[in-house]
Amino acid sequence: MKKPLKNNLPAKFMAMIVLLIFSQAASPQKGLTLNDALSVAESNSPSLKRSQLGLIRSQENLNAQRAALKSAFSLNITPFSYTQGRTLNEQFATYSTSRNMTSSASFNVVQPIIATDATLSLVNRFKFSDVYTKRDDPYYEKSTNAFDNNLTLSLDQPIFTYNRTKLQLKELEFNLENTQISHVLSRLQLERQVTQSFYTVYQQQQSLDISMSAYKNMQESYEITRAKAQAGLAADVELYQAELNLANSRSDYENRLVSLENAKDDFKLLVGMSLFDDFVAVPDITVDTISIDIGFAIEQGLRNRLELRQRQISIETSQFDMIRTMALNEFKGSVGLSVGLAGDNENLLQVYNQPNSNQSVQLNLTIPLWDWGEKKSRIKASEASIETQEIAFEDEENSITLSIRKVYRNLLNLRNQIEIARQSTVNAELTYQINLERYRNGDLTGMDLNRFQEQLSQSQISFTNALISYKLELLNLKVQTLYDFEKNEPLSPLSVFKQN
């Protein structure tokens, strides 16, 4: 007859647990709540950091454009310039040699005018010249030193075309708003991902605890069977089955332990924690069933969802593209006006003793003649793009409505599942205790007791999963409607953004 295995399996397993406890003591665990996890994620999450950098980029581009619309001041200086050359003077049929030394500077003020897309410029040019000229004619040689200054005010005004300055500024404002919305949506998405990952860790912790409890129960039943076998009250086959059940229970615990460590690593990577830090998830899974008005939820979603605003921005930017398309091969022009005051003298202080006024008016027109249908085709393409964006807006509204309806149905179903799972757990616990007593009295086999233990473990896991699923679905409803039904208050994404 085959001898039963020695009772070294529990001892080895307990030794392994002791080693595990000591190894965990080397890296102290800390309790981590969901709020703590979200705070860590907001500070360290790689995805949120990328979103924040995109937000900074859009904001700075808009700041730069606004700064470019203010008065621009510049100063150009040429401290010294020297030229010398020999040229033929055709009037006198003689060659002349000239030498020119100058110093000059110009001060410029340029002011874009947003309202009309014009440019107003004020330019002051100052110059000192030392000029020497000598012809081959020995009787002609002249040297001149002079100061001259030219102050000019000019206006360049486009006409018969669209305001490019306003359009560019509006596009950058829309781009910043779109980036802000994307940042808020990234934060909401990160909250959902962190919450799901956090509860996944908690589920694995609970599974590990339940598995450990199951192992202890199985060890207790094994001790009972072993004592019976030694007293001759149970067959050896019962002891073999008890040893097998104990080994399977230990294997299940080891598998749960591996799953927990993997879930922790995934969570750390998501929130930006050090992979060498250890923690214990400490959630609040207290569930208070909430009464939700589906009509109110849909109304909040259609009113608050930022994706709809993004669709509107896409429609408006498509209309900007239409404006540019309409301007292809367009009839357009520009008007240039300039007034100035110039003066020169050998004495710097007398430059404007006899000033000269300068004026100019210029009208330029661009008249397209034939473009072989290019503009007409591009307009049709832009119209199709705008219509596509409008259809996408309607689809987004329908998608939001359907998503909220699905979440609502899931919440109703999960409320029932929680009550069923709670009662099932209570019944499974009572059933196990009754059958454990029957097993002690010899009225039940080890295989039957193992089946009741599995039912108890499964009931406990199902109850935990039902609670977590309800919490996650409430979070999903908050993301879908931007309304917190637990606190009964709207979620303000822009205030969330400003806090960051």
Task: Provide a quick synopsis of the model.
The protein has ten helices and ten strands.
Give an overview in words:
Strands 2-3-4-5-7-8 form a six-stranded antiparallel β-sheet, with no helix packed on it. The model is unreliable at 1-26 and 494-500 (pLDDT under 50). Helix content is 59%, strand content 22%. The chain has two domains: 9-60 and 169-318 and 382-499, Up-down Bundle (Outer membrane efflux proteins (OEP)), CATH 1.20.1600; 71-159 and 333-367. The protein has helices spanning 9-26, 34-44, 46-68, 164-230, 236-271, 294-304, 306-326, 374-440, 446-481, 493-499, and strands spanning 29-32, 72-89, 94-113, 118-135, 141-159, 278-281, 332-345, 356-366, 483-484, 489-490. With 500 residues, it is an alpha+beta fold. The protein is built from ten helices and ten strands.
Query: Could you give the count of β-strands?
Result: 10
Portion of residues within helices? 55-70%
Placed side by side, the strands forming the largest sheet appear as 2-3-4-5-7-8
- The tally of helices reads 10
Q: What shape does the CA trace take?
A: elongated
What value does the average pLDDT take? 83
Architecture per CATH nomenclature, i.e. the level-2 architecture of the largest domain: Up-down Bundle
In total, how many domains does the architecture comprise? Answer: 2
Which fold does the CATH topology of the largest domain refer to? Outer membrane efflux proteins (OEP)
Strand content: 15-25%
Task: Please identify which CATH superfamily of the largest domain we are dealing with.
Answer: Outer membrane efflux proteins (OEP)
Provide the succession of SSEs.
HEHHEEEEHHEHHEEHHEEH
Which structural class best describes the helix and strand composition? alpha+beta
**Class of the largest domain, according to the CATH hierarchy?**
Mainly Alpha
Largest sheet entry: 6 strands, antiparallel
Poorly predicted runs of 5 or more residues: 1-26, 494-500
